[in-house]
Task: inverse folding
C-alpha cells in the first residue's frame, strides 16, 4: 500500500505534501531530520492521507495536490476527511 499525505506545521503555519509506503515511519523521519524544508517546521502533524495500490498512483496524486497551490482547497479536503471520522 502507498500513501499520499498532508502534514501541517503549527510553527510555520504551512502544509507539506508527500507520498510514501510507510506513513508512520515517514512522519517520524520528518520530525527527526535536521535537513531540508521539514526540519524547520517541527513538529509536523499528519492531517490527511489517501491510500493507493501503486507508488505511481500515490505520486500522481501528490503532484495533483502540489499543483493546486491553494491552501483553502487543502483545508477543505482535510476538513471533509475529519468530518467523516477518518
Result:
Amino acid at each position: 500500500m502507498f500513501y499520499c499525505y498532508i502534514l501541517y506545521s503549527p510553527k510555520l503555519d504551512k502544509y507539506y505534501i508527500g507520498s510514501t509506503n510507510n506513513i508512520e515511519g515517514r512522519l517520524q523521519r520528518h520530525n527527526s531530520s535536521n535537513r531540508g524544508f521539514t526540519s524547520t517546521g517541527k513538529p509536523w502533524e499528519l492531517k490527511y492521507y489517501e491510500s493507493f495500490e501503486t507508488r505511481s498512483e500515490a505520486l500522481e496524486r501528490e503532484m495533483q495536490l502540489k499543483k493546486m497551490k491553494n491552501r483553502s482547497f487543502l483545508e477543505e479536503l482535510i476538513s471533509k476527511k475529519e468530518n467523516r471520522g477518518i
Observations:
- The helical segments are 23-32, 55-68, 71-83.
- The CA atoms of residues 5 and 49 lie 4 Å apart.
